[in-house]
Amino acid sequence: MTIRADETRMAERTSTLEDLNDRSREVFRRVVEGYLDTGEPVGSRSLTRVMNEKVSAATIRNVMQDLEFMGLLGSPHVSAGRVPTQQGLRMFVDGLLEVGDLDATEREKIDATIGNGGDVGTMMDRIGSALSLATHGASLVLTPKHEAPIKHIEFVSLGPERALVVLVTADGHVENRLFTPPPGQTPSSMREAANFLNAVLEGKTLSEARSAVSREIDARRQQIDGLARALVESGVAVWEDEGDFHERLIVRGRANLLDSQEEDLDRIRVLFDDLERKRDIAEFLELTEDGDGVRIFIGSENKLFSLSGSSLVVSPYMNADRKIIGAVGVIGPTRLNYGRIVPIVDYTAQLVGRMLTDRR
Length: 360
Prior knowledge:
alpha+beta, Arc Repressor Mutant, subunit A, Beta-Lactamase, Enolase-like, domain 1, 6-stranded mixed beta sheet, 3-stranded antiparallel beta sheet, 11 strands
């Protein structure tokens, strides 16, 4: 399993870790682990019971103060224990986090929840639900574009201002879209438009369609009727909106995140509003485009989710040609159990890649 991190950032965090002596490193690690486990500040007295070295609470408080001065720990209240800062969490994840393999029981649960059968969209919905259930967080699944070559296109009139465009791909995928055709369409102009598109687009993917149609219309402007030309342009444009042929961001388990961060409900709602509007789909995929492996973003490190103060664990999945075509991830509070979440996200991403490859 690979966990990717920026090399410069890693060098900086490793240098800081190397500056800590064994006692300071253990205090830091136990404070972070205690906070991730309970969500509560960790006090010096509780650490005296678990430290490998027998030291007094006063000694541990002095170490905590040093770590706080370094920016690795913080105090929610004057008399409270310590919690890791965002910088401290980052250093812990990059240098001290222990990530094991996914155990067989959890692997079987994910496999069983995902199940078999159904189209890609249905499969991705199940994967989102399984990932949310396994991690107790909000899951994100960025589905791939449907890039099969086009086999046939047809226009069907449903009335003066309603029409249906039907697209069939070479792999048998069929999609229907309702749209408003340009005024004045006739059955003959619809047939002419469909014949033109079928001649131009057969064997091309949808992402190649618009440029191919534009070139052909320019070259044959005198041959194709104006009404049919307008219909061709609107019929192709309808697939530029959201749909199965374009990336779709599936969000599952919103309630898990709302329950875990009750003090930040307004910010969490803003996050989900942004996701619903699909503003940041391209940016979500960009998070994973540097290569294979899991990436961890904590709080404000990633502008996509910084407003909610959440952490994101994300991994790309690839097709048979090792090309990144989508991503899966989990959003949760910054006190995520990273050691447990990382292998789940990693396994799910690999599983999605294999399942999509098997469908080819």
